[in-house]
Each structure stands twice: as C-alpha cells, then as structure tokens.
Amino acid sequence: MPEELHALQHRFQDYLEGKSEDFIKDIVSSENALAEHRLGAYYNAYRIRLIDCLATDFPVLRKEVGAEAFEYLVLDYLKLYPSEHPSVRWVGRHMVEFLQHSTHENRDFLAELAQFEWAQGLSFDAANSDQIFTMDAMAVIPPEQWPSMSFAFSPSTRWLDLYWNIPPYWTALDTDGKAPQKQIEEYPTRWLIWRKDLRPNWRSLEAAEAWAIEASFKGANFAELCEGLLEWFGEESVAMSAAGYLKQWIHDEIITDIIINA
Amino acid sequence: MTSKNNKPFLGFGLGLRSDHYQEIIDQQPKEIDWFEIISENYMIDGGKPLYFLDKIRQDYPMVMHGVSMSIGSTDPLNMEYLQQLKNLIDRVEPIWFSDHLCWTGVDHKNMHDLLPLPYTEEAVNHIADRIGQVQDFIGRQMLIENLSSYITYTTDAMTEWEFLSAVCEKADCNILLDVNNIYVSSYNHHFDPLEYLKGVPAERVWQHHLAGHENNGNLIIDTHDHPIIDPVWDLYDKTAALLGPVSTMIERDGNIPPLADVIAELNRAREIATPHYHANHA
Ligand SMILES: [Fe+2]
After folding, report:
1. Model confidence over A116-128: pLDDT tens digits?
2. In the prediction, which pLDDT does B282 show?
3. Residue of B nearest to A196 (CA)
4. B266 CA → ligand 1 middle, Å
5. Would you call A156 and B47 a contact, using CB atoms and an 8 Å cutoff?
6. What pLDDT score was predicted for residue A94?
7. Using CB atoms within 10 A as the burial measure, which of B58, B210, B257, B260 is most buried?
8. Is residue A199 part of a domain?
9. CA dist B15 to B98, B238, B256, B260, Å?
10. How far off is chain B from A130, nearest CA to CA, in Å?
C-alpha cells in the first residue's frame, strides 16, 4: 500500500466532503490563485456535477421544491448517501428513502414523486426483451391449452403503489402545465410502468387487474387467474375478463412469452 | 501487442452524445471517421442508449473512454467495474479503450471527478502496477489521458509530462494526449506547453482530445461546454507538426450544439493537422 498517497487521498476526499480542511497544506499557493481558490474548483465541481446529475434523474422533484431548495436537498442527501458506485447513473438510488426520513413537511408526497421518477429511470434502461409476444402468436394457441398458460414479462415491467395522484401531477409539471391539486387516497393506486418504443410508459390499474398482473408475475396460470378474479367477476364473465387483461398486456408489449405447462 | 511502429491512425472523430443519435443515423456524416463513447453511459442492461450504440456502431469504428476506473486510487481495483467494462468491450469491439491518469475516490466512495495525483515515484509505481493489472485482465493495451488540473501538490517530485511518461513507459500503455488539457494546465500552473509536447514519448501518443472551455480569470476550469479557443487550435497545430498523424476527436459535454457545428470544428482540426502529416511523410 502506498501509504503517503493513501493518506493524501483521504485528506483530499475529506476536504471535498467538507469534513476537514487539513488538505489545504498539501497544496501550493500561488500569488494569482491561492490554495483555497484552487481547491474551491474541486469542492464546487463535486457538488455541481452531482446536483446536475440528480436534476436529470428527478426533474419534476426539482420543479416541485424549486431549483435552489433542490440544491440544498442534494447536498444534504450526499452527506448521508455519498456515491459508492462507479457510475453516476446510481447516485440517486437512495433518494426515496432519504425523503421518507427527511423533515420536509411534504415528505410523503415528495418521496412518492421521487419513487415514480426513479422507477421511470429503471424502466428506461432495464434489460431488453429477446422478443415481444404478439396477438398472432396468441391466436395459434388451441383453446384447450388456455388454462395452463403462464406468462413471462419484459424486464422493464414494474409497478408502484401510490397514495398520491403522482403520475398526472408529474405529467402536468413535466410539460410546464399548471400543477393539479395534490390529492391523497385512503388506499393506494397501483401504477404499471414499462418501456415501449424506448420510452417509459405508465397507466393505472383497477384492483382486479392489479391483482391479476401480480399473480401472473408470481407464475399463476390462466386457470388460476380466472379463479382469483372471481372475487371481482361472475362465473359467466370471468374468463372473458381475464382474456381481456391478457389482450391488453400483449397490446402494451409487456408479455415476452406464453408458456404452456402440459 | 507492442506500442512501437504500429500506431493506427483513425482520422478525425467525435464524442458520441445522445443529442446527436438521430442526426447521425439519418445523415451518416462522412466527415466523421469514428466515434468515442463514454463507457459508463453504456454499462446498463438495455434500452435506448444501447439501441443507438449498436446501430451507430454498425456504421462507424469506435473507441471507448472511461471516467471511473480510478486507476490512481489506493482502494483495490473495482473488479465488478472491470468485468462490466470487459463485457462492453466485447459488445462494442472498440479499436482501443482509455481512462484518465487520476483517482475518483477512496474508501469505496466515488466523487465522480477526475482528481489529480501527486507526481511522485510512489505514485508512478502504484499506478503502473495497476494499469498492468487492468491490461492483463482485459487482455489489451490501454490509453491513459492527461487531466486538466487546478492544484499543485507540495510533494511533487517531477513535472506532469515526466510523470505521465514514466507511468506509461513503466506500464507499457499508450497515451491519450488531451491538447486542451495541456493548455488549461499550462495556464493554471505556468509551464510551457511545448515542453510538455516534447517531453512525452511520441510513439505512445495514439489519440488526441480537443475541447473548449471558458476562461474565468486566474484559473481555467475545463468545462467542455464552449467551442475550442484559438490558443488551443494553435497548440494543436504545433502538436500535429511535432507528433505526426494521431487520431483526433472533439469532446463536447455541455451546451451541446447541432451536429453540423461540431462537424465544422472537426473539419477545422482536419485542415490544421493534415498538411503536417503530408509534410512528415513526403
Ligand atoms: Fe479529454
């Protein structure tokens, strides 16, 4: 271990993190630029770079709290969650947790807003699907095999349970529209998020579809879906309703494969 | 692989930026000979960046440029990162890959900045050893780039170019010589940039970066958000005369203009450098 280099790097990093100013004495001061001024370039660059990075990941959170407050929010965040990943892509991964435990008066709303923005990011660069299952492929599955069909979903597919009206609020602010009233419900709404045409998409799910998609993720086959959906639909219409969901998922391009377990 | 006498010359390239993806695919500009990608931007699982990367790679040669290897850190090398880098190299099949003569953090933290190193014997040995490990792991030689720097350490025992040369000779790696960074550092630290150019082993200089910055008085901060300034063009002229044909590209990271504007800058680089190459090889 190169001891001197190691100690020097510690002093430099402590300086950047605002923990100690010992590092100043390691730097040559010159008449035209004092050591403090020279080090300030690094001190500021560290902060500005990560503020910019998180502004890209959380654009509407920034609009919601305001540009200046967002800067302070990021500085507080970095004290608790300094980056430990080689890529700036992951600097913001603890933002939701940070907001949940903050003292901000709107913390529940802000945390859900951040959760929605982070989920969009995860969907944006999630793994590609090898294929998309189409209605044409669906049409050749014989009816007697329908009960045993189970489903594989694209890796970009995920959902969020949100108490606040976050997605419409997000869209309004993102397009510089007028922010709607913040509304909270007694029960959360489940929002499906997935990537289509290289962009994140989302839509809200009714309770029945929310249950069906979660069950399908966990491996339920079509017969099991129908059985579970009896909680919302009658005996005579349940298969039609389940088939309707399936058709919608195929249309959304979130089904990558249908597996028949004979 | 040896670094002598087989230096490839790729011509004149650009940094690939997402703002230009569609223009590149639609226009396939002939003036761009190759692209440099920021490796970390594509160390992801899927989606839009990789979609465009694969598409553009079909039409252009590429080199990979990383910002997170932290070759000068006293933390252990991040093997997970190196494995991801290797996977991306397998995907892109770049002509070469590079990173910076810097460190980015210790204690597993990442400051996401290119932090300068003290120019000491201890640092030379430490870094050369680590570059060796990386080259062994990846199975290829790499390029190391000089930084823009704003500080001088009290412990420095040699000049920046002596340090860069010593590291690269010892590790047997090549050099990505950023002409703008030489200009910025020479301004900030009051040295003669020509001495720098004469002080590096010419046969190891495989690539140049050119970039713009804003001069804020007594310290120049390297920002890559402005057009290249005239003194940097002058220095590039002298570089081409001294070093001969070296693959050259322009980095633009902020205030990104339309593709045509960056291509115009690239054509200027070509006009400046090419006459020297013909003179050298006449
Ligand atoms: Fe550079």
Report:
1. 999 999 999 999 9
2. 44
3. B47
4. 15
5. yes
6. 98
7. B210
8. no
9. 13, 23, 11, 14
10. 11
ipTM of the shown complex: 0.94
Nearest CA in chain B to A200: B47
The residue-averaged pLDDT of B14-37 equals 97
Spell B237-248 as b/e; 16+ CB within 10 A means b: bebbbbbbbbbb
Of the residues A120, A125, A130, the best mutation for testing chain B's interface (the one with the most B CB atoms within 10 Å of its CB) is A125
Q: What proportions of chain B, in percent to the nearest 5, are helix, strand and coil?
A: 45, 15, 40
**C-alpha B55 – ligand 1 centre gap (Å):** 25
Count of structural domains, chain A: 1
Instruction: Report the residue of chain B nearest A16, measured CA to CA.
Output: B111
Token pair 């099949």 is found at B93
Q: How far is the CA of A203 from the centre of ligand 1 (A)?
A: 43
Structure token pair of residue B64: 């990979």
Tell me, what's the pLDDT at A255? 97
Residues with beta carbon < 5 A to ion ligand 1?
B 178, 209
Alpha-carbon distance of B255 to B276, in angstroms, equals: 32
Residue numbers of the domain that contains A35: 1-86
CA of B254 to the centre of ligand 1 (A): 14
Note the pLDDT tens digit of each residue in A54-63: 999 999 999 9
pLDDT for residue B217 is more than 90: no
Residue (of B240, B245, B262) closest to B253 by Cα position: B262
Is the distance from CB of B115 to CB of A12 less than 8 angstroms? yes
pLDDT per position as a tens digit, A224-253: 999 999 999 999 999 999 999 999 999 999
Q: For B167-189, write each residue's pLDDT tens digit.
A: 999 999 999 999 999 999 999 99
- Looking at residue B170, what is its pLDDT? 98
Report yes or no on A177 lying in a domain. no
Integer Cα distance of B212 and B252 in angstroms = 8
Residues with pLDDT less than 70, chain A: 262
The predicted-structure confidence for B59-89, as pLDDT tens digits, reads as follows 999 999 999 999 999 999 999 999 999 999 9
Rg of the Cα trace of chain A?
25
A49–B113 CB contact, under 8 Å: yes
The answer to whether B111 contacts A8, with C-beta atoms less than 8 Å apart, is no
Q: What domains lie within chain B, and their CATH numbers? A: 12-27+38-280 (3.20.20.150)
The DSSP call for residue A220 is -
Under an 8 A CB cutoff, do B109 and A82 touch? yes
